[in-house]
Amino acid sequence: MRPLTDDETKVMFEKLTKYIGRNIVQLIDRPDEPYCFRLQKDRVYYVSENIMRKATAIGRRNLISLGVRFGKFTKTGKFRLHITALPYLAQYAKYKVWVKPNGEMPFLYGNHIVKAHIGRVTEDIPEHQGLVIYNMADVPLGFGVSARSTVDMRKIDPTGIAVFHQADNGEYLREEDTLF
Hints:
By secondary structure, the protein is α+β, with helices and mostly antiparallel strands. It is 29% helix and 30% strand. The chain is built from seven helices and eleven strands. It has a six-stranded mixed β-sheet. The chain has a five-stranded antiparallel β-sheet with strand order 1-2-3-4-5. The longest helix is centred in the N-terminal third of the chain and has 15 residues, at 6-20.
């Protein structure tokens, strides 16, 4: 487990900025204790510095996971957020979409969100901006990328795609054998 290089940090923070904006500072400078990001086998973990120091006694081959997995780096060097980062993204998200009850299951099965399934959205969402998807009871279901801006979303037909699927809570079941 090692710290991220400058290039890796830049790529990861650019991806996180799409979802939480300037609130990224609150992830690292927390009031309870400091947290950091660490890399283990191309996977990025969000861990408290206290636990990280204690984990140095564990051998690299024996260490499977430490903290919360935020995502992984692909072989091409891009960063892909993982569903386990959802509680932190939901806490600091700038843009949100609430899905009607009839749209929850299609999203949790990995489909994009169509306009007919949207209950409400935050104002001024730009096109291709990261956002967090909630059900109408304010429970975070996953995250995605806006297919259109808020103004354009209101104009499209009910079967038009409004939000591209990125990750959802159904991944815990669909990918449980490759989760860690």
